[in-house]
């Protein structure tokens, strides 16, 4: 396994055509369907980066910015933003396209943390991340901050429980 990998080594773009089965009673997409596509694309990125089995350990707030309709093409773009010792923070952007008009719009963003597991199901080290572009560097620093904030939240929750 390489000690360090580039963001582009594991990025994933997944496309889906929205079918009637994917929608709610208002004919817009069911949020759970979008969430499962986000989780799937992000999991593939985490697996490609670590070359291990991975599990989702945390999903940040998800906001749906605009509705997605039957017949839209949905593009789920996922890439590694930040890596810890055994965890990988993935950023996902969901874009919906109307194939008739060619218009596209950003509908959702999400951040998911995965942990790579060894053969006995325990967290195992992942390769480092080489950030090259300005965008990748910005996402890396924001990711570090996000992970720090998540850790603080977890400590507060644990204190509140005890
Ligand atoms: C993921 C799991 C193996 C981690 O076990 P653990 O004993 O907490 O492991 P550790 O404390 O060593 O933490 C491992 C990494 O996860 C990170 N982590 C743990 N809990 C986290 C949380 N709530 N949010 C973000 N990161 C978290 C730690 O910061 C650490 O990252 P690092 O090594 O990069 O610093 C365990 O929590 C688990 O099995 N969870 C269930 C996963 C699952 O079933 N997901 C749904 C289906 S895929």
Largest sheet: 6 strands, antiparallel
**Number of folding domains?**
1
Q: What's the CATH C level?
A: Alpha Beta
Count of DSSP-assigned helices: 2
Q: What gap, in angstroms, lies between the N and C termini?
A: 40 Å
Strand and helix layout:
Blueprint (H helix, E strand, L loop, with lengths): L3 E3 L5 E6 L13 H20 L2 E7 L3 E2 L8 E11 L3 E11 L6 E14 L10 E3 L3 H28 L1
Parallel strand pairs: 1-8
Antiparallel strand pairs: 2-5, 3-7, 4-7, 5-6, 6-7
Coenzyme A binds next to strand 3, strand 7 and helix 2.
Can you give me a brief rundown of this structure?
The protein has 162 residues and is an alpha+beta fold. 30% of the residues lie in helices and 35% in strands.
Task: Provide an overview of this structure.
The structure is a single chain. By secondary structure, this protein is α+β, with helices and mostly antiparallel strands. It has a single domain (4-161), classed as Thiol Ester Dehydrase, Chain A, CATH 3.10.129.10. It has helices at 31-50, 134-161, and strands at 4-6, 12-17, 53-59, 63-64, 73-83, 87-97, 104-117, 128-130. The strands form two sheets. Strands 2, 3, 4, 5, 6 and 7 form a six-stranded antiparallel sheet that branches. Strands 1-8 form a two-stranded parallel sheet. A hairpin with a 3-residue loop joins strand 5 (73-83) and strand 6. The chain is globular. The mean pLDDT is 95.
Which features characterize this protein?
alpha+beta, globular, binds coenzyme A, two-stranded parallel ribbon, 162 residues, 8 strands, single chain, Thiol Ester Dehydrase, Chain A
């Amino acid at each position: 396994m390489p000690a360090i990998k580039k963001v582009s080594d594991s990025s994933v773009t997944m496309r889906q055509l929205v079918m009637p089965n994917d929608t709610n009673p208002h004919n817009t997409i069911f949020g759970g369907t979008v969430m499962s596509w986000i989780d799937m694309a992000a999991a593939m990125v985490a697996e490609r980066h670590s070359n291990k089995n991975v599990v989702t350990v945390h999903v940040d707030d998800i906001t749906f910015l605009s509705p997605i309709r039957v017949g839209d093409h949905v593009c789920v773009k996922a890439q590694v933003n930040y890596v810890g010792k055994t965890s990988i923070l993935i950023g996902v952007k969901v874009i919906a396209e109307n194939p008739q008009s060619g218009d596209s719009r950003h509908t959702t963003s999400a951040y998911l943390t995965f942990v790579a597991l060894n053969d006995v199901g325990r967290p195992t080290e992942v390769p480092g991340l080489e950030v090259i572009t300005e965008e990748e560097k910005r996402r890396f620093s924001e990711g570090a901050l996000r992970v720090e904030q998540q850790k603080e939240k977890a400590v507060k929750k644990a204190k509140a429980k005890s």
